[in-house]
Structure to design on (229 residues):
């Protein structure tokens, strides 16, 4: 069966520090991968999605970047964190290439920038 | 681009009462719709999905939803809620862009079940 791992679960980082959140999927190949951010009262905002290694699409211009160095690995990064980067970050995957299937979510990372 | 509207940010309901959580989406030729549940500090878990076929979809934990194309709605219902149903519920639609699919979410409805 397929599983998705996301870590760390919680993170407290000072303003201006770098960020690296990692997500890996097991039990499937060539998944679509997604990074979402959840802020209080704002639902889930799609940040990045990827259809293959090295292929990243950005939804919202901002202080973050994403990379997919391996088929089942998706990394969210920042060179210098801002206070506004605080939030709950969720990684997800779905089967490709069809849209008639659900997205599967990791357990999330609670990021607090202080 | 697709959009999803969940008009109710919070819904309080007494235990064993029925509940309906509303969801409307922007129209499209074809659409795939989903309801997810999120418990505090956890990821999202799929409740149910509409892909095609019967407009009444049954999901886990006794939830069901009805797809209404003319009203572009996909409301979630449960005839009798339990305390354990207290959580946040998200409606989502998948959207195709350049051959790949993205999932667009509503802002969520916080269901609070009262004893």
């Amino acid at each position: 069966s397929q599983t998705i791992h996301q870590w760390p679960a919680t993170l407290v980082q000072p303003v201006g520090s770098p960020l690296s959140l990692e997500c890996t999927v097991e039990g499937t190949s060539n998944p679509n991968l997604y990074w979402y951010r959840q802020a209080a009262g704002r639902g889930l905002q799609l940040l990045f999605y990827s259809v293959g290694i090295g292929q990243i699409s950005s939804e919202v211009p901002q202080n973050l970047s994403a990379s997919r160095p391996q088929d089942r690995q998706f990394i969210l990064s920042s060179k210098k964190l801002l206070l506004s980067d605080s939030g709950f970050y969720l990684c997800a995957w779905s089967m490709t290439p069809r849209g008639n299937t659900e997205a599967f979510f990791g357990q999330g990372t609670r990021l607090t920038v202080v | 681009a697709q959009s999803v509207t969940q008009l109710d940010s919070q819904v309080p309901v007494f235990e064993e009462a029925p509940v309906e959580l509303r969801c409307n989406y922007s129209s499209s030729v074809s659409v795939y719709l989903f309801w997810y549940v999120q418990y505090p500090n956890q990821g999202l878990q799929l409740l149910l999905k509409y892909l095609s076929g019967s407009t009444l979809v049954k999901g886990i934990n006794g939830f069901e939803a009805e797809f209404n194309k003319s009203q572009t709605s996909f409301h979630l219902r449960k005839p009798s809620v339990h305390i354990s149903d207290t959580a946040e519920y998200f409606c989502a639609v998948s959207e195709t862009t350049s051959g790949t699919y993205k999932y667009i979410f509503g802002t969520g409805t916080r269901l609070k079940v009262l004893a």
About this structure: The CA atoms of residues 7 and 33 of chain A lie 15 Å apart.
